[in-house]
């Protein structure tokens, strides 16, 4: 049995969001193909993801200097402990499905906060004399991304920083099996329904082998 983290980053629901609509159909097809796997839904707009603020940085510094957890302030201890829970859950999973819209050429801020929370030395990567090494080889990931224009190819491809960012981060973790489902060009109200249906068809196909 594998554990899948279904990571969504859109404040609306599948009836209003192209990315969530496709993601929902992907998960349905995945569950049908893999009934014994565990799918854990993490809604980035409902999760408690502490930002890297002064409490976190000072708390980590105290722990590195030898302080015990109970010697941290309440705020430091609460945030550091929560970040530990987040990255441990991430490391324990086998597969990752990210679902997000493209906002300002990139991912929503809540998803960036989550990637910060999972980019922890000694957990998802480590430093060596030859440079950083990813600690999550053998795992796989999928990113479903919706956008008003086309960014996977053509003149706007050079400013696409959503999927390309996640691919670099996941590669840094040692994850080499990374796929993308693009739901793009949805700003055209006439073409949007067909674009969504094509993306759903691809999602169902990918789900069978993911």
Give the arrangement of secondary structure elements.
Blueprint: E1 3-8, H1 18-33, E2 38-43, H2 54-64, H3 74-92, E3 95-101, H4 109-118, E4 125-128, E5 131-134, E6 140-147, H5 163-172, E7 177-184, H6 192-209
Helix pairs in contact: 1-6, 2-3
What's this, in brief?
With 210 residues, this protein is an alpha/beta fold. It has six helices and seven strands, in the order βαβααβαβββαβα. Helix content is 40%, strand content 20%.
Key attributes of the depicted protein:
NAD; five-stranded parallel β-sheet; Rossmann fold; 210 residues; EC 1.6.5.-; two-stranded antiparallel ribbon; alpha/beta; single chain; 6 helices; flavoprotein
β content, as a range?
15-25%
Largest sheet: 5 strands, parallel
SSE arrangement, N to C: EHEHHEHEEEHEH
In CATH terms, what is the architecture? 3-Layer(aba) Sandwich
How many domains comprise the coordinates?
1
Compute the average pLDDT.
Answer: 97
Helix share, percent: 40-55%
Strand order of the largest sheet: 2-1-3-6-7
Class from secondary-structure proportions: alpha/beta
Any idea what the CATH superfamily is called? Flavodoxin domain
Per the CATH scheme, the topology name is Rossmann fold
Subunit structure: Homodimer.
Binding site for FMN: 17-19, 102-105
Catalytic activity: N,N-dimethyl-1,4-phenylenediamine + anthranilate + 2 NAD(+) = 2-(4-dimethylaminophenyl)diazenylbenzoate + 2 NADH + 2 H(+); 2 a quinone + NADH + H(+) = 2 a 1,4-benzosemiquinone + NAD(+)
InterPro entries: Flavodoxin_fold, Flavoprotein-like_sf, FMN-dep_NADH:Q_OxRdtase_AzoR1, NADH:quinone_OxRdtase_FMN_depd
